[in-house]
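Our preliminary data section would be incomplete without showing what the modeling component actually yields. Below, a chain of 351 amino acids is followed by its predicted structure, encoded as tokens that our downstream tools consume directly.
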Amino acid sequence: MRRLLPAVVVALVAVTLPASGVAGSGGLGKPEVILTGLEVPWGLGFLPDGSALVAERNSGRILLVQRRSGKPATSRVVMRIPGVRAESEAGLLGLAVSPRYRSDRLVYAYYSTARDNRIVRFRLGGPIRPVLTGIPRSLFHNGGRIAFGPDGMLYAGTGDATNGALPQNRRSLAGKILRLRPNGSVPRDNPTRGSLVYSYGHRNVQGLAWDTAGRMYATELGNTRFDELNRILPGRNYGWPGREGKVGETSARFTDPLVTWDPNEASPSGVAFVRGSLYVACLRGLRVWRVPLVGGRAGRPQTLLEGVFWRLRSAAVAPDGALWLTTSNRDTYSERQMPGDDRLIRIPLQP
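Predicted structure:
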């Protein structure tokens, strides 16, 4: 393994917001801003010791964030991904830590090059090895979230790359949720033999999560009418571009979403499962949506932290059960920046 890169110069802060900033906490404690001065943080993952990895979309950097009780967080750059083409929605996107990290030390990243979106893996500070290349890319709708499921397989949410014909084309990797072995090969029990496609008919998948029963969920950016939270079933068609939102049909052909939102109150990105609920980080909606789950069905969503941190991009659960969020106030679409943007936020669970 090569030596880690030098420390990054970045503002560090431990700020606890007053309780009044967390109306309707939904089982969460007071938010704590633990890192500031980030450049559009997109990917977020955790090492077994509780340290966080944060990927910056525009810079191609991966930062290691270490937090010790009662002490300020520390941060340093541990990786720079070469060949990242950051423009509009493209760049260094999702991160996933190998479930066997203690033995294999591998981290996975999804990013945009000048020609495609791709998934690679590496040891921190070491060479990069391709896992999957050739995912269609564009200035917009690149998807980018990757996560390991409870089955040990790697899942990737892709976008339609602004080509409406691709989500319904099962030979294309665009507009899909992909399921692959950690080395990039096709699992034998995928819905279609020899294909990485796990589900299709997606516009722009942004978040992936599983509940304690192993049921899978994904957030998806809609067009002008509806954003979606979907329960993902193998081989199912989620309708894009012909369908958007609920149309009262869950059949052998199409699957309706669990929850829909007006894009003005959502634009859902990262999602995390905590204590029986999904927590959805929202960009345009400037909030977190808490969606309670019972047996794979969604209860009434509850809005949290509306306007407190502005645009929210990623949501992930730390090894200690706390919910972590990243802001996205320095990205292409933000109408304002707040002091310290972009920020990394930790929210502990209430006892």
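The domain at 15-347 is CATH 2.120.10.30 (Neuraminidase). The longest strand covers residues 128-135. Preliminary results of this kind motivate Aim 1 of the renewal.
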